[in-house]
Design brief:
Four copies of one chain form a homotetramer.
Chain A (H helix, E strand, L loop, with lengths): L2 H18 L16 H7 L1 H25 L7 H27 L5 H30 L9 H25 L3 H17 L3 H10 L4
Helix pairs in contact in A: 1-3, 1-4, 3-4, 3-5, 3-7, 3-8, 4-5, 5-6, 5-7, 6-7
Chain lengths: ~210, ~210, ~210, ~210
């Protein structure tokens, strides 16, 4: 299988998952006993924040996914499987985001479980992505793998990314809001700082860069 | 990252968002206490009008998006971020359209908030699109940017587009229906008149144009 | 705009619309007062038949869409608009299919309105498709338009297709089931018989055909 | 029609169907009378297992679909029809998965019917896929069909795959859980073992393979 169709399928899944996120943003229509729209929008703030976090996290993973795969010549069954594992968790993001948003109105045990689930899906996604990264280091069908002297630096960053989400899972069990804040910070951080592989690729591309 | 995959991902998001619009068009099934279907279809007219406005607005933004990106040689992280901001608001359109349609049965405060939200998402989309436009003016990786003498004319049109949606937000706070009518007019206007960049591109293409 | 991105966007809309059709196929879960699953599946037969009709109709329109566009060199704003009109109705199909399926449990006035809506969306789709067909006859950017001596034959078939759906709208007002049967027959007919443009193209392609 | 657009459309349908699977994973929000989140997640285990089975089954079918089509030069109407039949069942998977997950809380007759439906949709998918496989053996527009001496081996594996799902339908009528376990085993098996056509293709691709 050539890379193009793997990318096309993955892009489709990323695009659908990122768009389904907004299905969680619903309000009750007008009617007796229903709260006013401004009150609903106000009390739904966790849904909007969770939407932003998940939207940018999927967006960044999509960028990094492309950066990782662009020097892959041929796709073998191991990469196909690792890519499916990554997508398995990407597809779960709308569900975990919706659950977190629904339960975050107060910081009780259920909210903490929901937030641990939210962070846990991101852990799974990071593990899937890290697996693809390791594959690119060892496969013979990668044109320009990350050079050996930069691999540990890259690994530390990947493991660091996954580790922050693991920390968020643990924190969630004590404070749903603290974990939520941490995950928001991670999303903001990633918007301004990409993986080494991605940065390297874009430097190559930028004319005169 | 090359342009092709950015376009493929964006096209996917545009296509899913435009198709999810129709999920808002639902009627209650037959049953005791449910209104007759003709009554439901009649009283749901705001949903159908909002569907038309959002459908053509997303369609036009998709056309303009392609026209803007077609002379981009290489994609840097700034463009990726601006594109994500644009898509962030595109993905919100089914939600804001559904909310506006649900609340527009009478012109009360909730309906005005809903309509301000509807127009506000279009403001965000315009800002994201304007950001991409400014990027194409200054990036070195754009093959044929809009020439300097035409930039202010183009900017005025973009700012004008965003300004109309800002006006719609303000009007919405006084009359939901007036804002709704204004947004319908803007959609009709854009169907018959595209951005300078788009017009220029299609002139180049049309044989004998 | 080149043809490729128009096709990619349209394919995305076709693919999402055809997959959303199955969202209408839902059953109530187990619980007190809920009918048994076999009873539900039995009484939902209109939903399954409507799914089949809409699935194959979208599939056929997708095939014909490609056959029509494959000789288009450049896309102008008229074609973009006509294509959006076609997609506007394609996106409505999951809604009209769901409404028809819900109301078809008995042949009362509401069921007839629902069936007229179902057929009416197909009329709109046929008109949008016919518009694109006429555009290909007159545009200078079409490489191999249908030759003049075959145009009327092709038009008659297109108009015939739209006319059958108009007839289905009229019949629906008298008998929902009769209109449903007619639309099923049309779908079966189209599976085995494609438009002249499509047949011509595939003849060209088939080695030794 | 060339192969590219058939693949793009099919990839879109696969991507949307695989992502819609997660729409079935919903929990009730916090509220009086609603069970605790941990209890809900625990009692929803069939939904998570069914998600895993369907996710990997669609993923594997997508891989095999590409492997089958990659040596197809031109697409004729028979292949288009067979591909639509395959997609017809792929699109049904989110529905059958949701139904199975909802009813599997106890092993009564309804759960058995739901599980038979779940397995039955996979039978349909296998038949559609087998039809495409047979087409590639006989079509003149396939560049490198499976050589005659390997056809029966390949057929036996395909028929075997479909047969296991037929067996699952039969078992489901006696024990929903036994059929569920069988389908899980099949998914695990396919993750580690692909069709001959697919294996052959990837061997060709792997450098030094």
């Amino acid at each position: 299988m050539d890379r193009t169709r793997l990318e096309a399928f993955s892009d489709g899944v990323f695009a659908v998952a990122i768009t389904l996120l907004a299905l969680n943003l619903t309000v009750e229509g007008p009617g007796p006993g229903h709260p006013k729209l401004t009150d609903q929008l106000g009390s739904h703030w966790p849904a909007f924040v969770a939407y932003l976090i998940s939207f940018f996290t999927i967006g960044i993973i999509w960028v990094n996914h492309h950066a990782l795969l662009r020097s892959v010549k041929a796709v073998d069954r191991t990469l196909l499987f690792l890519n499916l594992v990554l997508l398995l968790f990407v597809v779960l993001i709308p569900f975990s985001t919706a659950t977190a948003a629904e339960y975050l109105s107060k910081d009780n045990w259920d909210a903490r479980v929901a937030m641990a689930l939210f962070a846990g899906v991101f852990v799974g996604m990071s593990v899937g992505f890290g697996g693809i990264f390791e594959w690119t280091l060892h496969s013979e069908s990668v044109l320009q793998p990350v050079p050996p002297e930069r691999r540990w630096a890259a690994r530390i960053r990947f493991v660091g990314g996954a580790a922050v989400y693991v920390v968020a899972v643990v924190i969630a069990l004590f404070s749903a809001y603290a974990a939520f804040a941490l995950m928001g910070l991670v999303a903001v951080y990633y918007i301004f700082e990409r993986t080494p592989a991605a940065s390297k690729s874009s430097e190559d591309e930028e004319p005169g860069g």
